[in-house]
Specification:
Blueprint lengths: L1 H36 L18 H13 L7 H4 L4 H12 L11 H13 L10 H4 L17 H13 L7 H7 L4 H12 L3
């Protein structure tokens, strides 16, 4: 009897903690995040990344990097005020939202992106994107999910990686992006935007 009562109380406390984490996240999202990333992380503006379905640990790492100043951008002023529990709550919230994808209209152009994403380009020594980002663009806790991301956001990021000082950005992505042609960047961005 005591064991059952204890289990029930533990379950109640844990579910209450989960509910409060969701409430904390939703309050921050409604006050701040939704203006750029949308209420469910769908981001209707192509200059901001979609966060819906992004890997939780990846979001935590990026918010911590913005908070510490290791990563520079618009998010620095927002992340600096976030606590660890708030970052965790936001990451849980956005990672649990439904993933959206774009309709790819130019299938032939997207096929070029498919080829680079899955096979790379041996002539310019570009490895396949899937070797790090996953066959379906799902990413990992250290590498971002690309599936369904805005094509303009992806192409802008790849262009920035190619132009940035490798000491101030991801040296691996810099070494890859600097070899991509503008057409290859756009084709890959087009392709991944349609992944689910």
């Amino acid at each position: 009897m005591m064991r059952t009562l204890f289990s029930f109380l533990l379950l109640f406390v844990l579910s209450d903690l989960s509910a409060s984490e969701d409430e904390v996240a939703l309050e921050i999202v409604e006050e701040t995040c939704q203006h750029c990333h949308g209420l469910q992380g769908e981001s209707s503006d192509v200059i901001y990344p979609r966060l819906a379905g992004q890997n939780k640990k990846y979001i935590i790492r990026q918010l911590n990097n913005f908070r510490s100043g290791e990563r520079e951008g618009t998010m620095n002023d927002i992340a600096v005020n976030l606590t660890d529990p708030e970052i965790d709550a936001l990451a849980s919230y956005f990672s649990s939202q439904p993933v959206l994808s774009h309709t790819v209209r130019d299938k032939e152009f997207a096929a070029v992106g498919w080829y680079i994403f899955h096979r790379g380009n041996k002539y310019s020594k570009i490895p396949p994107c899937a070797s790090c980002h996953g066959e379906k663009g799902e990413g990992t806790e250290r590498i971002p999910r690309l599936a369904g991301q805005h094509k303009n956001y992806v192409s802008d990021q790849l262009t920035e990686f190619s132009e940035r000082d490798p000491k101030r950005s991801d040296p691996i992505m810099h070494s890859i992006a600097i070899k991509l042609t503008e057409m290859e960047i756009e084709a890959v961005a087009n392709y991944v935007s349609g992944l689910e």
